[in-house]
Amino acid sequence: MLSRYTSQDDVIVGTPIANRNRLETEGLIGFFVNALVLRTDLSGNPSFRGALAAGAGGLSGAYGHQDLPSIG
User: Fold this and answer.
1) DSSP 3-state percent helix, strand, coil across the chain (nearest 5)
2) CA–CA separation, 47 vs 23, rounded Å?
């Protein structure tokens, strides 16, 4: 939907994620949230399943690197 609405093939969406995967922060009280940048390339007019597969690949990559700070 975002790709069609913006006429862009490269869709980037930011989403918050709780960052409590370190032993040092498990006992702390507070709001620890990082932003994950989810990028999906929808060039070539993929099918719905192809778009889901592209999004899943970007999602697993973002979760795999969630400890790295985002730029911007």
Assistant:
1) 35, 25, 40
2) 42
